[in-house]
Amino acid sequence: MVRLIAFLVGVFFSGMLLIGLGDTIIGAIKEPAVPTAEHEFHKMPLAEKFPHDGPLGKYNKGQLQRGLKVYSEVCSACHSLKLVSFRDFAALGYNEEQVKALAKGWKTEVPSINPETGEPATRPGIPADRIPSPFPNEVAARAANNNALPPDLSLITKARADGPAYVYSLLIGYEETQPAELLKKFPDAKTPDGLHYNPYFANLNIAMAAPLAADDQVTYDDGTKATKAQMAKDVAAFLTWTAEPKMENRKSAGWAALIFLIIFTGLAWMSYKSIWTDKKH
Amino acid sequence: MSFPWANEYKPQNAVTKWVDERLPLPRLVYNAVGAGYPVPRNLNYFWNFGVLAGVALVIQIVTGIVLAMHYYASVDGAFNSVEHIMRDVNAGWFIRYAHMNGASFFFIVVYIHIFRGLFYGSYKAPREMIWLLGVVIFLLMMATAFMGYVLPWGQMSFWGAQVITGFFSAIPLVGEPLRQLLLGGFAPDQAALNRFFSLHYLLPFVIAGVIILHVWALHIPGSSNPTGVSVKAEQDTVPFHPYYTAKDGFGLGIFLIGFVAITFFAPNLLGHPDNYIQANPLSTPAHIVPEWYFLPFYAILKAFTVNFGIPFTGIVLIEAKLMGVLAMFGSILLLFFLPWLDTSPVRSGHYRPLFRKFFWYGLIPSLVVLTYCGAQPPYTQWVVLSQIAAAYYFAHFLIILPIVSRIERPLPLPNSITEAVTGKPLQTATA
């Protein structure tokens, strides 16, 4: 009885799947999938290497400091960094005084209340504060950005596939005009007014205008030439750190754990072999 | 207990003797996983995975309890509390990544454990109850993993919950009210998050309880073995300790090396980037996918594309969506009937030439294809492939296995485990 019912259920499910298979194939022949501009012109991120790549990779503190400068002078006009505190910048190689100065001198003040009247007010930042956001709320952010919402950047390199390379590619990937081939093939896929063509962005048209418009937009303190590619790379490295601040601890603990386990496994192997010596198995 | 030659627990001193007379817990452990449990001497490395699954559960419970100390089950705070764990809690990044990847490794280990059972016929008499309890554990694991994935309240958490609970709305008449009852609202929200957290904390202990039953049921007939031939005499077995504790210790080392390599050097490899975006009910991700261990079942769900009805009348009896849901649950529930579908008296796939072909060239490829297709967008080629693979999956268990059991001519079995191992016949002086 069990086998009879099973047989009938099996014939039903497999049969419906095979009918579905026929249906899918007929459907695909009758109405082949229409290619889309996103499908054909979207590019995968460039294969860019970073010093923190790989199991031995470490952050380059100079690069992170340069990236912070790019963030604070360019990106932070629109993008928040809500999960990072000023005190975290100690990890970039700044001492206590420098962190205090960074917090105090940040261009946006920290929301607070007036201690006398209780009215909303602002005050200069201290190391314990989170990085203040450029807009007080989502409505204000959208109102200032043509109804587009600039995403928080704290986790952006983990929230996109191949994140660091994606951020880098997106920043240098803007194209003034759409490829002629694209417009020829997809006349309806013209970039709408107010958007900008960028083949690394999922739907090709991004609301953000090219933020890194020219070389030397930022003046680096360490004398590095601030080309567009250099700035893009430095800020991508900085945003990798904001998303994964404990990466160096993680990798060094990982090596310690691996070495311990390799020794443990070797000993376990030897005891296994010695216990079983006289037992054929 | 199973075999008359099993070692007996002898308390070594006055204290253990005192304990043994009042609560023989050390005796229980000795008989369960100590020298008092005789095990076939010919187990291969596939028999390590039961113990490894137990270790994986312990890792999940220990890391999970610590995470729960810092986690905050609120739609506004959950995402940030996970980031607080990652950034500010001492070694929080380690606890969280270990828990996140521990779930994946738990499934890897359990899948190998299940496929070992499928190949070596471990579900056959007299071990049906072990298998049935194992399927219960598997279902509980899936529920636990799903609810755990919702807790960080990222985009995939939210939309995964939306899709999975949406299955219930496919049930005719009562579906939508049932879904709202389960969620405590019209969509996943604070009520759903709270109950998922509660259940996610509860279910692992239920799993631990069912594991005790699973191991208890195992100790009635004793472990199976790669030949599938039953134990006949003492020479066929070795005591679990020290023989298999040593072998499991080595297996555990290899398992932990793999676990540590992923957890410390590629912790997000098995996850989805979208879950690092806070849940937003107003923005649907371009492409909702479950965690990798659910992909084959997700592919089965999506493979049903036509309604079942009376041809040429337009009357629909079962909608494609409902059929997909039934098939997805059915694809796991059919495992409950496996001991009665595969009626071949030979357990091990080694001695079943036809079964072995269908296992390696049918079942395994179909599951690989389903796993791959489950992660793909619904383009024609992936739908076609998953329809073929899903059709095979159901046919394999429900149609092919019963027929194979009937028509197959198994290879000759060795007379005993000892003979299979040493080549010499078993000396049965006592028999």
From TrEMBL, chain B:
Gene Ontology CC annotation, any one: respiratory chain complex III
Keyword Glycosyltransferase: no
Chain ranges passing through the membrane: 45-73, 93-118, 130-151, 157-175, 196-217, 250-271, 292-310, 316-338, 358-377, 383-404
Residues engaged in binding heme b b562: H99, H200
Obligatory cofactor(s): heme b; heme
Gene Ontology MF: a single term: oxidoreductase activity
Gene3D superfamilies (alphabetical): Cytochrome Bc1 Complex, Chain C
Organism domain of life: Bacteria
Record keyword Transport present: yes
GO biological process: respiratory electron transport chain
Family: Belongs to the cytochrome b family.
Role description: Component of the ubiquinol-cytochrome c reductase complex (complex III or cytochrome b-c1 complex), which is a respiratory chain that generates an electrochemical potential coupled to ATP synthesis.
Subunit structure: The main subunits of complex b-c1 are: cytochrome b, cytochrome c1 and the Rieske protein.
Name of the protein in its database record: Cytochrome b
Organism per entry: Sphingorhabdus lacus
